[in-house]
Amino acid sequence: EVQLVESGGGLAPPGGSLTLSCIASGFTFSDFAMNWVRQAPGKGLDWVSTISADGTGTWYADSVKGRFTISRDNSINTLYLQIHSLSAEDTAVYYCARPMVRGVVHFFEYWGQGTPATVSS
Amino acid sequence: DIVLTQSPGTLSLSPGERATLSCRASQSVSSTYFAWYQQKPGQAPRLLIYGASSRATGIPDRFSGSGSGTDFTLTINRLEPEDFAVYYCQHFGTSPLRYTFGQGTKLEIK
Fold this sequence. Notes:
The complex is a heterodimer of chains A (121) and B (110).
Chain A: E1 3-7, E2 10-12, E3 18-25, E4 34-39, E5 45-51, E6 58-60, E7 68-73, E8 78-83, E9 92-101, E10 104-111, E11 115-119
Parallel strand pairs in A: 2-11
Antiparallel strand pairs in A: 1-3, 3-8, 4-5, 4-9, 5-6, 7-8, 9-10, 9-11
Chain B: E1 4-7, E2 10-13, E3 19-29, E4 34-39, E5 46-50, E6 54-55, E7 63-76, E8 86-94, E9 97-101, E10 105-109
Parallel strand pairs in B: 2-10
Antiparallel strand pairs in B: 1-3, 3-7, 4-5, 4-8, 5-6, 8-9, 8-10
């Protein structure tokens, strides 16, 4: 069974940093590109970032480019998202998500339960 | 950049009725890269439809997707109580790589 378990959210001050993690199980992690999607309170879904299966390719939404860094460690089946220079607009639930099948990245079939991050002083 | 606009914002229907949800793209897109999701309060989104018209694993056949170009539709026949949720459309862009979501349609019980 595919499982994605996020952690690392919580309360952080404006200007601070957070590192989110997503531990994957139930599939060969190194075969799949992985993604972060966020959802601000009461708002819709917002794609944040994607990383290729081998970690050599990364892509970011324009709104987070330069402040967010996606990475992965395939030896421990873990996806990361580092967030710097936090602002209130980064307050959201952050989901990690996996495509349906290897090599087809058009949509996300598997999602974690999300980790909430709140930016506040 | 492609913008996805969903309508209506809220749809009020009764169980047993048919729901028709619309998603319009700001420019023509490939059906291959178009999907629909369902999200219930406090839960992660669930993939319903991919490739504009293919049902994801385990999705009941009362859910169907159609459309091409700029206009896509999610139809839910014979609404069940568990179908009342928020629905999002999504497009995958290749150059540059990006995923765009619509703003969502809330399907509520009338």
